[in-house]
Design brief:
Largest sheet: 5 strands, parallel
CATH architecture: 3-Layer(aba) Sandwich
Radius of gyration: 20 Å
């Protein structure tokens, strides 16, 4: 079956993505999603431009090897209402930080739940991809009653 989804984008907080405790599991989950989807995975990482603890230069240099997906890093203040994402992952403590412009959302209480959210996303992609094809409509011969 062909991929009916096209581009699938995921949005998550940059600091959570870079956390050393879960970084490897997140990368494994994203690699799995890219094989499941057979399409383009777009990863949108946002950061709080006022309270960020991340060195952006170092982060961008370290992400040069990300070959599975297209990655964008964007400041929270630059996210607009029209910036729609297919899958939004955010901490339950940051529920109102970004506008609600997503198709699906996964909320986590701890960073260890992020890989679980990626698995749930993979299951959602499988569900939408495996939609049965439409049956061809059977043409029936019209009955004649003029005889």
């Amino acid at each position: 079956m062909n991929n009916m989804l096209g581009r699938v984008n995921i949005r998550m907080k940059l600091e959570d993505f870079l956390d050393k405790k879960v970084e490897d599991d997140i990368l494994k989950g994203l690699a799995e999603i890219s094989t499941i989807s057979n399409g383009i995975i777009s990863l949108i990482l946002w950061f709080d431009d006022e309270n960020s603890k991340v060195d952006l230069k170092k982060t961008i240099d370290s992400m040069q090897d990300a070959k599975h997906y297209k990655t964008s890093i964007i400041a929270k203040s630059k996210i607009k209402q029209r910036d729609f994402v297919w899958w939004d992952m955010r901490s339950s403590t940051e529920e109102t930080t970004i506008s609600n412009n997503y198709r699906f959302q996964y909320k986590y209480n701890s960073l260890s739940q992020i890989p679980i959210g990626l698995k749930v996303m993979g299951d959602a992609i499988k569900f939408f991809k495996n939609k049965p094809s439409k049956e061809k409509k059977v043409e029936r011969k019209q009955k004649r009653n003029d005889a």
